[in-house]
Amino acid sequence: MAVVAPGGLFDRAKVEKGLAWLSGLGYEPAPAKHLFAQDFLFAGTVEQRTDDLLEALSDDAIEAVWCARGGYGAYAVAQALAQFRPLKRPKLLIGHSDVTALHLLWSRWGWPSVHASCLDRLGDARASAQERKLLARLLRDGKAPPLPRLRRLGGEGRPRGPMTGGNLSLLAASLGSAWELDARGKTLFIEEVGERAYRVDRMLTQLRSAGKLDGLAGVLLGDFTDCGEPDGRALWPTVLERHFANALYPVLAGVPAGHGTRRIPLVFG
């Protein structure tokens, strides 16, 4: 299993503990050549981060690629990587947050991926034993955990079709890129962190204006962490209701995935 750093800088000690956790599960983590490189705000230059992913994708011994951390920077890597056609068999991608850029690229390639914590969190005490257990089971048995009871915001029935999506900021930022969101006929998962209600509204309006909320098989809404107003009010739930209450497809909220304290892995594709 390759371990790469497509985005921002990270705490090396936490990632090393995450590598030890992977080894304890019986896997052979293969740290990328530039895993611990640094360049300004990023875990290496765009070229270094892209090369690490290309090397992992071309190695027949690698079956999965786990991201050490999200953090700003994966956007440029996804754009660079999109210039190449995948020549090898699919490699499972694991990560979340800004790794959304790569999830969308994987989706365009028709490859599966797992929306789950990056390795630095799994080397940190913040990750619960249950989160680690669910991830280990998914990797071992291919069984995704069932979703808990969710709250319906709009539409009828259950979401159908393969899942795609991720962080709302990255979904909006994908427009016009080589890895642009394409969720028609799919279930779109959305989560966010640290964005006030007006920004959540702006990004959803941007996606709607671009036709990205048309023809969906459904929407699953995850955690919107630290998205409150300066005065403590939570206005973002009203934004979601205003956007999805009249949806023709099913819209369910309350998926414990994203940047919250409780996280379950979601299988995309």
Could you walk me through the main structural features you see in this protein, from its secondary elements to its overall organization?
With 269 residues, the protein is of the alpha/beta class. It folds into two domains: 2-141, Murein tetrapeptidase LD-carboxypeptidase, N-terminal domain (Rossmann fold, 3-Layer(aba) Sandwich); 151-261, LD-carboxypeptidase A C-terminal domain-like (Glucose Oxidase, domain 1). 33% of the residues lie in helices and 17% in strands. The chain has a six-stranded mixed β-sheet with strand order 2-1-3-4-5-11, with helices on one face. β4 (92-95), α4 (100-109) and β5 form a beta-alpha-beta unit. α2 (46-58) packs across α3, α3 (74-81) runs parallel beside α4 and α8 packs parallel to α9. The longest helix is centred in the N-terminal third of the chain and has 13 residues, at 12-24. The two termini are 20 Å apart.
Instruction: Report mean pLDDT, rounded to a whole number.
Output: 96
For the secondary structure, the number of strands is 11
User: What about the largest sheet?
Assistant: 6 strands, mixed
Q: How far apart are the first and last residues' alpha carbons, in Å?
A: 20 Å
